[in-house]
């Protein structure tokens, strides 16, 4: 699969292993394809090979949504915030002493869990419409 932030294209390869050496690519379409679809696929293929666009939303909201969904899954399995933190942030867990008092990582996961609950309870519709 070739993909960037805007496009994705799945290639089914036969013959030599593509990752081991340079290969010649021949595009084959089953049946009689729609010419516009063929052109669009070739344009996307060329774009992904020459200049893929990798834009990543690194905002706090994106991280809270990601962590929130992980918290939902973890809590459904009976995990504690500390267990979830060990999976999501192992490097921070080595540096952080997990205490009952003030713990920024625990507070982040609590906020994230609330965001995950909101997504679960219908907030995902706003995300899809954005």
Outline the structure in words.
By secondary structure, the chain is mostly helical. The chain has two domains: 2-50, no CATH class; 60-129, no CATH class. It has helices at residues 35-50, 60-76, 81-88, 90-95, 104-129; strands spanning 2-3, 8-9.
Secondary-structure topology with pairs:
Blueprint: E1 2-3, E2 8-9, H1 35-50, H2 60-76, H3 81-88, H4 90-95, H5 104-129
Antiparallel strand pairs: 1-2
Helix pairs in contact: 2-3, 2-5, 3-5
List descriptors.
mainly alpha, 130 residues, single chain
Q: Helix and strand string, N-terminal first?
A: EEHHHHH
What is the helix fraction of residues, given as a range?
55-70%
Number of helices: 5
Report the radius of gyration as a whole number of Å.
Answer: 22 Å
């Amino acid at each position: 699969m070739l993909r960037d932030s805007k496009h994705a294209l799945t290639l089914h390869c036969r013959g030599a292993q593509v990752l081991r050496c340079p290969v010649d690519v021949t595009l084959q379409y089953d049946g009689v394809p729609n010419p516009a679809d063929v052109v669009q696929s070739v344009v996307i293929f060329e774009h992904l090979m020459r200049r893929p666009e990798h834009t990543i939303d690194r905002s706090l909201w994106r991280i809270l949504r990601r962590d929130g969904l992980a918290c939902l899954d973890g809590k459904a399995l009976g995990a504690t915030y500390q267990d979830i933190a060990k999976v999501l942030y192992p490097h921070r867990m080595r540096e952080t002493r997990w205490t009952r008092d003030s713990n920024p990582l625990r507070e982040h996961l609590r906020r994230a869990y609330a965001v995950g609950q909101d997504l679960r309870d219908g907030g995902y519709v706003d995300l899809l419409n954005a």
